[in-house]
Amino acid sequence: MRLHLPDEEAQVRFGVTLASLLPPCAIVFLEGDLGAGKTTLVRGILRGLGWRGNVKSPTYTIVEPYEFDGITLYHFDLYRLADPEELDYLGLREMLGQGMLLFEWPERGAGCLPDPDCVIRISHSREGRELTIEAINKELRGRLETALQEF
Ligand code: ADP
Ligand code: MG
Asked: pLDDT of 68-115, one tens digit each?
């Protein structure tokens, strides 16, 4: 599935839509170069879940948790991960099944990450961004296909 998002506002808006489609313990990989718009998409997902506070990129902390009524969202940025085994020390194992897990730079955690429900690849396209969405989770794929027709 492909989608062109012309500006930052559209990127956030698509994140809001994604938030309504993802299951509570979804695992999502966000791929794309620095500046692709991965964190912007996470901001949209958080907004869709009702987060009203700041969203900072966990560049140095690697992971930032966001607590909601009933669920926690864990936002990972693995860009500065020295070794995938560090994920153990960060408590990844304990987070599994406890909330939504979003990974920027999943390539850097290769071999130590759970299987994703969805992989979103973002690249520059004209002034905006092109998203290639691969939904491995079948139910999610169905819901995404419907939502994309209206987006
Ligand atoms: P990443 O986390 O992938 O490094 P960011 O989310 O920090 O990237 O975004 C980098 C820049 O790209 C920001 O200035 C943001 O406003 C811009 N941006 C995000 N999505 C889009 C889009 N669809 N079209 C144009 N600019 C975008
Ligand atoms: Mg980022």
From this structure: 988 899 999 999 999 999 999 999 999 999 999 999 999 999 999 999
**Cα 45 to ligand 1 centre (Å):** 14
User: How many whole angstroms separate alpha carbon 45 and alpha carbon 86?
Assistant: 26
Q: If DSSP codes are grouped into helix, strand and coil, which group holds residue 32?
A: coil
Q: pTM surpassing 0.85?
A: yes
Q: Report yes or no: 55 and 43 within 8 Å, Cβ to Cβ.
A: yes
Give the pLDDT score at 151. Answer: 87
User: Residue 149: which residues within 8 A CB-CB, separation 6 or more?
Assistant: none
Cα 94 from Cα 63, distance rounded (Å): 13
The residue behind tokens 């930052």 is 8
Distance 109 CA to ligand 1 centre (A): 22
The ligand with the least distance to the CA atom of 59 is: 2
86 vs 24: CA distance, rounded Å: 25
Instruction: Give the count of beta carbons closer than 10 Å to the beta carbon of residue 94.
Output: 9
